[in-house]
Structure formats: structure tokens, C-alpha cells
């Protein structure tokens, strides 16, 4: 008797991978402690794709209404590059200040004091 190949589910190229990456981003963002910030690049590196900092930003833009602390994600120098996605250009800064985070004279988070580095994610299973 001839064995048949198992049927595989057809998924559009890249769609499943994007969803997996976004899910990993969300799990990391959910772990950022109150009073700390992390960067798009640190999240990308923890997800296993160091060069995908911009994709982290896209994931965060897609997370409206989730309750995730997206205001705790800043760029590599502590600038609030995502602030315009909060509906009010000052809301992100106000939320961070309410958590006790301080800013330098250029309006950037004092990264040496408030940076939180997420642990690397080995696989999708370790994110669950």
C-alpha cells in the first residue's frame, strides 16, 4: 500500500512569520517593568532578529487597544519617536514621567538609569 503525504496548510509567504514575530514583540513589551524603558532594537534582538527594530515599531502600531505598555519603548538614544501614535504628542512623555522616568535637557529618557534589557527569546515556545 502506498503512503500518502500528509496535507499541509497553505499560508501566504511571510504572513505566519510576521504574526509569530509580532506575538513575540507583544510578550516582551508586556514584561517591561513600570519605571523602565527599552528600545525597539533590544526587543528585536530578544526576538532573534536584531535588524528588525523597524518591524518592532510596526508591531507596536498594530497593538492599539491591547493595554500593552507601548509608551515604555523608545529609540536607541531615548527619544520618544513613537509619541505621535498616542493621539497626543505629549501623552507618551506624561505617562513615562508619571512612572518616575527622568529626561535629559534634550527631552530624551536618561537611558543609563532607566534602560531595561529583555532576555533573549530562544524559540516561540519560550515566549508562551
Written overview of the protein:
With 128 residues, the chain is mainly α. It has one domain: Winged helix-like DNA-binding domain superfamily/Winged helix DNA-binding domain (Arc Repressor Mutant, subunit A, Orthogonal Bundle). Helices cover 34% and strands 3% of the residues. The protein has helices at 15-30, 40-46, 53-61, 91-98, 111-114; strands at residues 38-39, 73-74. It has a two-stranded parallel sheet with strand order 1-2. Helix 1 packs across helix 3 (53-61) and helix 2 crosses helix 3. It starts with 14 loop residues before the first helix and ends in a 14-residue tail after the last helix. 24% of the residues are buried.
Q: How much β-strand is present in the residues?
A: under 5%
* Count of beta strands: 2
Q: What's the structural domain tally?
A: 1
Termini Cα gap: 41 Å
Structural class of the helix and strand makeup?
Answer: mainly alpha
The oligomeric status of these chains comes to single chain
Task: Estimate the global geometry from the Cα principal axes.
Answer: globular
The average pLDDT value, as a whole number, equals 85
Instruction: Give the helix tally.
Output: 5
CATH topology: Arc Repressor Mutant, subunit A
| Computed Rg | 18 Å
How much helix, percentage-wise, in residues? Answer: 25-40%
Strand order of the largest sheet: 1-2
CATH class: Mainly Alpha
